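Format notes (please read before filing issues)

Several people have asked whether sequences and structure tokens are stored in separate files. They are not. Every record keeps both together, in the order shown below: the sequence lines, then the token lines. Line labels are part of the format and must not be stripped during preprocessing.
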Amino acid sequence: MRFEIEAKELKNIINRASAVTTKKTALSFMTALEFSVGSNGKLHVNSTDIEQYSSISVTVANHEPGIAYVYVEDIAKAIANMNGMISVTLVKEDVISIKSSKKKTEINVSILSEKLGCPVVETVSTSSNDNGLAEVVKTAVSLVGKAQKAPYV
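Then the structure lines:
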């Protein structure tokens, strides 16, 4: 099961669906929501407290059909501070991954270098193909013995 949805919309769905769940119960399934994604791209979020039943349906993006049961408290905490599009994926039978789209941050290396008064070397810490470390060492070696004025004194 996988789907993408706006965080605000998912929070609203969870609030509406969890209104029917029993918060304090010996039956743990009574505090869970059923997330069901159909091949047509419809997400159904179902909940019950035996006396009442709630089903909320919305169309979602980038979906894969499937069903997952999620405790209200767990998913509410997981998405509390998320904004924008989020991706919900059933990774294993009992593991759900929830990821938020990240904001892209761009850094102007020449301006940063000018402001700091020293060379700035771009590198990627997650890539083994990046020669950033070699470039950092090369730049550091080239500066040995040269004085640097503190930019903000």
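For reference, the curators noted about this record: The longest strand covers residues 85-92. The chain is about 25% helix and 30% strand.
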